[in-house]
Amino acid sequence: VSCATASEYLERLEEKGMLKRYRWRGVILSRKGMKEVNRIIRNHRVFETYAYRVLSVSLEDACECASRIELHIPDKIVDSMCSILGHPKTCPHNNVIPGGKSCCGV
User: Fold this and answer.
1) CA–CA distance, 5 with 7 (Å, rounded to integer)
2) Do 41 and 75 fall into the same domain?
3) What CA dihedral angle connects 17, 7, 41 and 25, to 10 degrees?
4) Are residues 78 and 100 in the same domain?
């Protein structure tokens, strides 16, 4: 990725309120940006856990598939998978699964 392309993407994310850029010092995620990051992490880990435990997909394949669709899974679907799984606290890699807005008592 070129510096110009990276700069364009950062500008777009800043316009959407996802981060704050500080010239020559870097970037910091905003509260909105952190919520989106946690949503994506939750999507990945819940889907991966569901595919591994319920569908008996290998852990490697479950993780790869989760990486491909984590940005596109609706919250309702993730919450349903989480409920079916009994609201797991961690994924098969033993990483914490963030709680959902309307799921897991959050």
Assistant:
1) 5
2) yes
3) -80
4) yes
Check whether residue 52 and residue 73 sit in a common domain. yes
User: Please, which residues bridge with residue 29 across strands?
Assistant: 19
3-state secondary structure of 90: strand
Helix (H) or strand (E) holding 31: helix 31-53
pTM exceeds cut of 0.85: yes
Counting residues of the chain whose pLDDT is more than 70, the rounded percentage is: 98
Q: What H or E segment, with its residue span, contains residue 79?
A: helix 75-84
Query: Is-contact 37 13, C-beta < 8 A?
Result: no
Q: What is the pLDDT of residue 56?
A: 98
Q: Does one domain contain both 72 and 101?
A: yes
100 is in which domain, residue-wise? 31-106
* Spatial separation of the C-alpha atoms in residues 59 and 64, rounded to whole Å: 9
